[in-house]
Amino acid sequence: KDEKEGDEEQHGVGIGYWQSLLDTMINIQNRGILPFPVTGATFLRTSIHVAGDSFSMVLMNGEIGSTSWALFHFQLPSLLFSTQACLKFRGQEADKDLVRFVVQRAVIALGKPGEKSDKQAVVTRVQWKGVGITSSNNTREMLDTLIVDALRGGKGNEKSCLDLFQFPALEAVYQSDQEEETIDRVDAADDEEEKPKEVKSTFTCQFYGVVSIQTELNAQLGFLPDLVNSYKKKESAAKSELKTAEKKEKKEE
Predict the structure, then answer these.
(1) What is the domain extent for residue 227?
(2) One domain for residues 56 and 151
(3) Whose CB has fewer CB within 10 Å in the chain, the N or C terminal residue?
(4) C-alpha span between 215 and 217 (Å, rounded)
């Protein structure tokens, strides 16, 4: 690779322009420029790969000062999203159609490929007997209280931690395949509509170990559902307040 190509990769040139690039290539190919010869094909590929050492997310059971929360912690998470498009002509020379084949894949993985581990991700219920977090706590203190102490098991800091779920190393793959005849965007009529597209999708998930579930029903049925419902209620209340404000503005107008 030359220096220019290396600079483009480093700065992420082209990210976010996949669809417009695909449309441009379709228009070029409709005019007969690509592929050459007509029996050939043009391939476009793009991929985004994100990986990290660990990822943690906290859902508070109420406000930030709540004394109970759910901790989601993932080890060696990675996300790969890739798209491949193949453009080729189909039919007789006099009446050929441009066909687009698109394959999209999303791969979510925990742990190193093929490595067996029974604790790559945990969902933990944390209950704190002390005073909740306040606005006077800085970011580091909040992270230590909500995440670091909980991952250590809460020993010696008045926290009760219970793992509700434990997941091993895993790889989940979602793939969609679709074939469609493209419309020449230059010559097509304005009212011409594209035909409904058939999309074939598959999803597989491979676990490289044992999935562990806490069998204490009170912990499972009385915590996570209530936690999710509390967020739903807040969302509904926010939407209701927004509608009320919009009605009030219309009346004032």
Answers:
(1) 223-253
(2) yes
(3) C
(4) 6
